[in-house]
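Lab notebook, bench 4. Continuing the backlog of folding jobs that were queued last week. Each job is logged with the same field layout so the records can be merged later without manual cleanup. Today's entry covers Mechanosensitive ion channel family protein, a 366-residue chain. Filled in by technician R.K.

JOB TYPE: sequence-to-structure
TARGET: Mechanosensitive ion channel family protein
LENGTH: 366
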Amino acid sequence: MTEFLNDIRAGGIWLPDWLASVIIFAVVISVTLFAHRILFRLLTQLVESKDLFWRSLVSRLKRVVRLAMLVAALSFGATIAPLTDTQSATVRHILLIFFIVLVAWMAKTVKHIWMTVYLRRFKLDAEDNLLARKHVTQTRIMERVVDLLIVMVTISACMMTFDAVRQYGVSLLASAGVAGIVVGLALQPVLKNLFAGIQLAITQPIRIDDALLVEGEWGRVEEITSTYVVVQLWDWRRMILPLSYFIENPFQNWTRESSALIGTVMIYLDYSVPVEAIRRKVEEIAQGSKLWDRRVVNVAVTDFREAVMEIRILVSASNSARTFDLRCEVREKLIDFIQREYPASLPHVRAVMNEPPARGRREAAE
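JOB STATUS: finished
OUTPUT FIELD FOLLOWS
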């Protein structure tokens, strides 16, 4: 291109530097757009028989690759264009920053496509979604950590292109004095939750859609971010807890290994009730319920009180919501059965009237 301009000037045709620069930039942009169109036409045909990841990758990266190719072409054009050293350095510096941002954009797009395609294999609305909750939780946490790392690396790379900022950063790290201590103390909660998020992704004490009993409230894990966890409570309220809470505090996870749960129904009846009849009725209720998972049904007398005996009923269901509804169903149908068949066995208070002595009866009669 430079030789072409020199030939034009040698032939007596004079072009101002700004017009020559515009021509050079227009040519490199046109060639780049043409090359981009040919390249992605070939790539589209190449990935037609590939899996969803590669097809999505080519489709989603088309725009950002075009911008990256234009930035590289403009940087080349700025090198050969008749610009001053200052102008050329300024243009190439700006284009370098754009290129760094575009590379970060590409990395984030590739990460998003891979995680989206990966999570398509798992369904949270399945009956037994333990495996899905495990992978979704790991993926969501690691996605936020990777996003944070991409942003940090991008900002650092952009700052390193400025000599003054690079020297200041080096001197600040070398000093490691009071400023370093202040920054470390200021970032302590952020770093604490960041490492807690990595630990949660690896050990997984909680997962997306887990049923938890935390701070005396029952709810499900709705969202796990890079710094906090959103728990949707049973009455649709949201409890927001930092990630470090689940590392430092005890809580109950009702779906840690399986979504199935055993529900407990406690009932207190008079000693006269036939326990075997209660057992048969509970088994009948469980057999006729669509909520029971056909695994556990048990009736046992677990304690004797002064006036009543304690009967514990165990029934199982496939998840916590169905277990709660099954417990309510057992209570309702069992108490209806007792009221109809054994009303005298419901708890009641006995009172025995002792007769007064003979002398007291005579005095009362007088």
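OBSERVATION: Residues 279 and 299 are 6 Å apart (CA to CA).
SIGNED: R.K.
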